[in-house]
Design brief:
alpha+beta, six-stranded antiparallel sheet, globular, single chain, 180 residues
């Protein structure tokens, strides 16, 4: 399975041993404030396990998925990042533990995911959604070169959509290594 490394992060497949750390991340009210239909509701252990399993299963189903984001300095799970299929289209998503906020980790992980998708998977276009009030996430999407495309309603949730095409993507000069 593919892995990606950046200056500070290793993006690798989830393993069952990641579940306890993922539960802590998805159980944090600050982290889940803008996530899902029930925004602000922490994930149960079962919901966290389902998220982990879906992240792994997506790789065989779609040829892409979400990685465990590992802080190389501590070897700890910092969150998840990657692509999921939204009606057959690749959608970028990232969730990081609160300890990793405001330090550039989300931008670093998201940029690496886009680079992998465009350079290795040869994806033509990637979309992303967030809630309008999630200013920090919107900044990350803009930093990685995604453009605001408009307001949307998804399953009764107000959101904003961003997108980027392969020809628009400009990788930064940071360290990046992909192992297929």
């Amino acid at each position: 399975m593919p892995e990606v490394e950046t200056t500070r992060l290793r993006l690798r497949m989830f393993t069952p041993s990641d579940l306890d750390s993922l539960c802590l991340i998805l159980g944090d009210l600050r982290v889940v404030k803008y996530l899902g239909i029930d925004a602000g509701k922490p994930f149960t252990r079962l919901e966290s396990e389902e998220a982990l399993n879906k992240a792994v299963e997506a790789w065989s189903k779609y040829g892409f998925g979400r990685w465990a984001v590992i802080d190389k300095a501590t070897c700890r799970l910092a969150g998840l990042c990657g692509l999921r299929s939204r009606e057959g289209k690749p959608e970028l998503l990232y969730i990081l533990a609160h300890a990793y906020w405001n330090r550039g980790f989300a931008t670093e992980a998201a940029s690496a995911c886009l680079r992998f998708a465009f350079e290795v998977l040869a994806v033509d276009r990637i979309i992303a959604f967030t809630r309008p009030e999630n200013v920090a996430s919107r900044r990350v999407l803009e930093k990685v070169g995604m453009s605001f495309e408009g307001e949307v309603w998804e399953v009764g949730v107000e959101g904003v959509m961003y997108a980027i095409a392969r020809q628009q993507f400009r990788p930064d000069e940071s360290a990046y290594f992909s192992a297929k």
